[in-house]
Predict the structure.
Amino acid sequence: MNELLQDLAANWWLYALIPFISAGVGFCTNLMALKMMFLPMEFVGIGKIGWQGIVPRKAATMAGIAVETMTGQLISTEEIFERLDPERIANELEAPLNEMVEDVVDEVMRAHQPALWAAMPKIARNRVIKRVKDEAPDLIKEIMEKVKSDIDEVFDLKEMVITNLMRDKQLLNRIFLDVGEPEFKFVARSGAYFGFMFGLVQMLVWIFYKGDWVLPAFGLLVGYATNWIALKMIFEPQEPKRVGLIKIQGLFLKRQKEVAEQYGDLIAAEILTPAHIIEAILKGPSSDRLFALIARNVKNAVDDQTGLGLPFVTMTIGTKKYNAMKNTAVESMVEKLPRALRQIEDYAEDAMDIRNTLKARMADLTPTQFERMLRPAFEQDEWILITVGALLGMAAGFAQLIFMFGGGS
C-alpha cells in the first residue's frame, strides 16, 4: 500500500494526464474518421494502396440514394412540369424568340440560298422574317404542351440529378455536410467527452494494475467505442422515447424540420434548377426525341408558311435542298434555344416551386424515411472508419506506455 501511495505522490501528474490524453485520442480518431468520409476528393496513393473519401469514391451509389429519396418520396417529374403554363412560357419567350428567329432565318438563307437572299429586297426579307416570328409563339406553346403530355419521353429526372452530382463531387459532399453539420460536429466533440470518461476508468485501472496491455487496449477501446456510440446517438432511437422525465430521440431525427429547410434550399439552388432541367431536356439522354419533336414542328411551320408556293419553291431549289434548309433551321434553333430559355428561369422557378415543395414533403417523412437522408454517408464502409479509429487509439496507447511510463512493468 505504501508503495502505491509513493507512486501516486511521485507520478500523480502522469496519472492525471491519462483522461485528457484519452479525450484527445477520442476527438482525433473521430475527426479523422469524418475527414476520411469526404476527403480526399480524388484517390491519393501509390498503385492500389491509398485512400479516397468514401462519399466521392462511391459517388454513383451516393447519388443514386439521393435521387431515390428525391424522386421516390419528395417530388415527381410530372408534378414539376404540370405547374408550367405553356401560354405563359410562350409569352415570356416572345422577345428572345423574335431575336432568335431573325438570326435563324438569316443563317438558313445565307447558308442555302445566299444569292437569292442577297438579291431579295429588304422589305421582302423582313416580310419572311415577320411571318416566321408570328408563328414562333404558337410553335413554342405547342411544343410545351407536347412536352407536358409526354414528359417521360424527353426528360429523365433521375438521370439529370445523378449526372449533376457525378459531375460535381464537391456538391455531393455538401449535401451530406450541410444537412448533417451539427451531427458531424457532435461526432468529433463526443469523441472527447466519451474519451475522457473512458480515460478515468483507464486511469484507475492503471493505478492498480500496470499490465503492458492496459494502455493499448484502452486506446483501442476509446477509438472504437467513441465512434460507435456517437453513431448510435445520432440515429437511435428513431421514434421519441421517454426515459423517466427525459424524452430521447436520435439527434439527427430531432432536427427534421430544420433539415427540411436546409435541404430544400440546397437542392432547389444547386440541383433541381430551371437551368439544369432545361439543359437535361436539350442535352440529356432523351434529347433525340425532343429534337425530333422540335424538328417536326419547325418543318411543319416552314411548310405552312410556304403554303401554295411549296411546289414552286421545291421545284426551284429542289426537294433535297429544301429539306436541307429545314434541317439547318432546326439545328440553329436547337443551338440558340438554351440562351432564349434563360429568359423564363425566374418564372419557371416560381411556378415549379421546388424549394417549398421539398421542404414540406421532407418535413412529413417518417423517421425511417428521413434517416436515409444522412445515414448512407456513415453506412458505406463504416467498419473501415471504426477500425481505423480503433487502430489509431491503440497506437496512442502504446505511445503512452513507452513515453509516459517507460514501457510499463
Remarks:
- The first helix runs from residue 2 to 38.
- The beta strands are 44-46, 49-51, 241-243, 246-248.
- The two ends are 17 Å apart (CA to CA).
- Confidence is low (pLDDT under 50) at residues 308-313.
